[in-house]
Amino acid sequence: MNLEDAKRLDAADPLHPLRELFTLPEGVTYLDGNSLGALPKATPERVRRAVEQEWGEGLIRSWNSAGWIDLPRRLGDRLAPWLGARPGEVLVADSTSVNLYKVLHAALQLQQGQRRVIVSERSNFPTDNYIAQSVARAHGGELVLAERPEDIPPLLDERCAVLMLTHVNYRTGRMHDMGLLTRWAHQAGALAVWDLAHSAGVVPIDLLGSAADFAIGCGYKYLNGGPGAPAFVWMHPRHEGQVWQPLTGWLGHASPFDFDSEYQPAPGIQQYQCGTPPVLAMTALDTALDVFDVVQKLGGIKALRNKSLALTEAFIGAVEEQVPGAVIATPREAALRGSQVSFALPRQVDGYAVMQALIARGVIGDFRAGDPELLRFGFAPLYSGYADVVTAVDALADIVTTGSWNAPEFTNRSKVT
Ligand SMILES: Cc1ncc(COP(=O)(O)O)c(C=O)c1O
């Protein structure tokens, strides 16, 4: 596929016009929406209105008149269908790490001290395993890590309280079968907690159909809520009223404006709210979700998924054909692949420097240290297209083949990689 072919495919793609809903700088090929989603064009004006009118003029009255107080639930309701959940079951609040802390504590409490082991994978995103270590310690248990996905089932034994997995792995883009693993966890007497950071808004998710127990995820990746956007949390309704989540702040109280001295948890997911919501950040996420209303009319998550699979497949093929020594770390089988592609380069090639050289040419992906070091490219079907695939792989092939990455401006590492 050359650039002309790619542009023809983009022109024929019914989702391609969605790109116009985003601000993407001229000359930039953005393949990092799995890390930070692009800016929806409507966001600056909407946030400006929230600042100038709702805050500036409405002042404290806006908690009621602008509906600020309802944002965590309202945004949760908007997200619910994209997670396979029902309105009223999802709350937007805090960060993914904080929400994970809440749900892991709740899950361990549900096991009533009979089981204290959390099972996960060593390759999980570090924050998940760090939080799980601390929660397991607090309950007198431990975190046990599978080295490979196939090592998970034997760890689901009578000590296992919770199976905590990230649906799509942040390094490899490998996707777990949520229904199957949840079933295995339940058959072993464990609960299933899912991190949807790399799947919300880009792959079909069926939390209720999978009968999962808890889920959490980020608002700033494929949902495009902006840097540090609030996260979301879901609990299966069967657990309602069974336990307290540990961060018992006033807005998770059954009647916060009674200012009672005793904590009484609010029913359902509302209990998972802790303190005052970040209204401006919530407003940005609210605006970003408008794009998903448009997607719903263009085939919904199925259409997004089909496009994402086509783009990642085209990218894998082009990298294999054009980039010498690249070893793809992402599954080729569609059912096992999220919406990103990662690959390793031969040891003598500095992957970090290659990514910096690529960024200098306007192609933005990212680099993840580890063994192997990986170059990661996220395909956000809302605004990524076939021309992005061709531009990125042509530049990559040139950088690796000519060795132009080997220059001091590319090899010196910055704080954020
Ligand atoms: C799987 C996963 N969980 C959680 C996070 C981040 O959590 P937080 O938003 O709390 O920093 C990331 C960030 O990339 C992630 O990949």
UniProtKB/TrEMBL annotation:
Binding site for pyridoxal 5'-phosphate: T96, S97, F125, P126, T127, D128, T166, D195, H198, Y220, W250, T276
Subunit structure and binding partners: Homodimer.
Homology family: Belongs to the kynureninase family.
Organism expressing this protein natively: Pelomonas cellulosilytica
Signal peptide: none
Record bears the keyword Hydrolase: yes
EC number: 3.7.1.3
First-level EC class: hydrolase
Bilayer-crossing regions: none
Pathway membership: Amino-acid degradation; L-kynurenine degradation; L-alanine and anthranilate from L-kynurenine: step 1/1; Cofactor biosynthesis; NAD(+) biosynthesis; quinolinate from L-kynurenine: step 2/3
Entry cofactors: pyridoxal 5'-phosphate
Residue positions where N6-(pyridoxal phosphate)lysine is found in the record: K221
Keyword list, A-Z: Hydrolase, Pyridine nucleotide biosynthesis, Pyridoxal phosphate
Function summary: Catalyzes the cleavage of L-kynurenine (L-Kyn) and L-3-hydroxykynurenine (L-3OHKyn) into anthranilic acid (AA) and 3-hydroxyanthranilic acid (3-OHAA), respectively.
Catalytic reactions on record: L-kynurenine + H2O = anthranilate + L-alanine + H(+); 3-hydroxy-L-kynurenine + H2O = 3-hydroxyanthranilate + L-alanine + H(+)
Keyword Kinase: no
GO molecular function annotation: kynureninase activity
Superkingdom of source: Bacteria
Protein name: Kynureninase
Gene, per the UniProt record: kynU
InterPro entries for the chain: Kynureninase, PyrdxlP-dep_Trfase, PyrdxlP-dep_Trfase_major, PyrdxlP-dep_Trfase_small
